[in-house]
Amino acid sequence: MTSKIIVEPLHFPEGSGIDFGAVASNADIENLTDDDLAVIRNALFTHQVVVFKNQGHVSPKAQFKLTQHFDPAGGSSYGHGKTIDAKRSILHPDLKTIPHQPQVQVIGNGRVASYEGLTDFQLRHPHHKTFHATTIPEHEDLDFTRFYRWHIDAALYGPLAPSVVTTLLAVKVPGGRRQTCRYDDGTGDELDVPLGTTAFVSGYAMYDALSDEDKAFVRGAKMEYAPHPYVWMSSAKSRSDGLGLLSQGLEVPIDELPPHSPEETQILPLCWRNPVTGRLALQIHPSAVRKLHLADGTVIGDLAEVREIVHRLQRPGIAPKYVYAHDWQQGDLVLFHNRGVLHSVVGAFAEDEVRLFRQCNIAASQFPEGPLPTASVAA
Ligand SMILES: [Fe+2]
Fold first, then answer.
1. Does some domain include residue 1?
2. Helix 60-69 to helix 34-47 angle, to the nearest 10 degrees?
3. Ligand 1 mean position to 376 CA, how many Å?
4. Cβ neighbours of residue 173 under 8 Å, at least 6 residues apart?
5. How far is the CA of 127 from the centre of ligand 1 (A)?
6. CA–CA separation, 109 and 122 (whole Å)
7. Given a cut of 50, is residue 1 above it in pLDDT?
8. The pTM is what?
9. Which Pfam families match (predicted)?
10. What is the distance between the alpha carbons of residues 167 and 338, in angstroms, rounded to a whole number?
């Protein structure tokens, strides 16, 4: 291997449960060789989150090409395809598409005069008050925050398979405040975070934290996602920990969704197998779940019950000691393995705090692989 890229695991304080994340140095993202790409690919599947510092110069095209490398057969459709165009989709207001590189989206906060062919546009950092059933009081809003929504970047309906990787480039980052992220779920859990962090947790750690009985359960089960899930959930409200929705009957009724068919419904394994390490990640988009298909053929269709099961399985994995809250610096290019981690927007910016990020992911050519037959899976 002749690549000059050096990959070093991130280090965390004593007591941390975070066992993922790495920094890669010596990379020329605009001119990656095949050897470089092999190193980056291996780093992603080994460490799940890979940080490249000082990459503010990287073009949208180079970002797209790096993202596309992880699944060359995946074509060039943005991970959510055109579903973000649906007026009622919850994803619609958060994204601006770069005209000359439509797989790359601009996200952030504040008013921007001009950027990559976009002019005079408003970015809005998602705030939990638009999505959670309860909110942090206004007078505490600058100091306290919540996980907005734990998720995987995936369409979860139709032919588009969950992206393998998402790349995020921090072009502009407002300086230095910190906030306390509260779970507000009666546990007292909270986490000190940099303003506007992206929070990551490992699906592998989430799986490993389960009892043997639950491991067997999740290995055999599949999740049926709602049709047009981002429209379906648009009127529902989240739990205070951002990990799934409350069951208040607020979802858009199925017969009021855009046209859909049962063949387009996605039913995916709960555990996704890492193509390099073979580890199993518990990968569930908790807000989009609708029905649970058990190993014995039973289908749990009661939405409240499905959500309770999913929350019970996932909640230990988002405990503060498992959360990596990336401290964004201008020029950070972060690649994350979308099939091995869950992530969440965090934070509340003031109106005049301008932040500009570029995000790219591409719908994959293949759906994630589930567990191997039980005999060959280590518990
Ligand atoms: Fe995301």
1. no
2. 70
3. 32
4. 196, 328, 329, 330, 355
5. 14
6. 7
7. yes
8. 0.94
9. TauD (PF02668)
10. 10
DSSP string, 266-303: -EEESEEE-TTT--EEE---TTTEEEEE-TTS-EE--H
pLDDT above 90 (res 267) = yes
User: Residue 5 and residue 51: Cα distance in Å, rounded?
Assistant: 12
In a domain, 323, yes or no: yes
Asked if residue 372 belongs to a domain, the reply is no
Give the strands of the sheet with 144-145, arranged side by side: 144-145, 178-182, 190-194
Please tell me the total count of domains within the chain. Answer: 1
Containing structural domain, residue 28: 6-366
**Residue 343 DSSP label:** E
In this structure, what CATH number is given to the domain that contains residue 163? 3.60.130.10
Above 80 in pLDDT, residue 325?
yes
Cα–Cα dist 182/191, whole Å: 7
What is the 213 CA–ligand 1 centroid distance (Å)? 30
Q: How far is the CA of 216 from the centre of ligand 1 (A)?
A: 28
CB-neighbour burial class of residue 327 (10 A; exposed 0-12, middle 13-18, buried 19+): middle
Q: pLDDT tens for residues 68-83? A: 999 888 766 666 665 5
| Per-residue confidence (pLDDT) for residue 93, from 0 to 100 | 62
Q: Do 155 and 89 meet the contact criterion of CB atoms below 8 Å apart?
A: no
Query: Comparing 73-87, 106-120, 153-167, which segment has the lowest mean pLDDT?
Result: 73-87
CA 152/CA 225 separation, integer angstroms = 13
- Ligand 1 centroid–CA 212 distance in Å is 30
Ligand 1 center–CA 338 separation, angstroms: 9
Structure tokens at 91: 């994803």
- What confidence score (pLDDT) does residue 85 get? 46
Q: Is residue 258 part of a domain?
A: yes
Q: Which residues contact 204 (CB under 8 A, 6 or more apart)?
A: 19, 20, 48, 274, 279, 280, 281, 340
As to burial, measured by CB atoms within 10 angstroms (0-12 exposed, 13-18 middle, 19+ buried), residue 98 is: buried
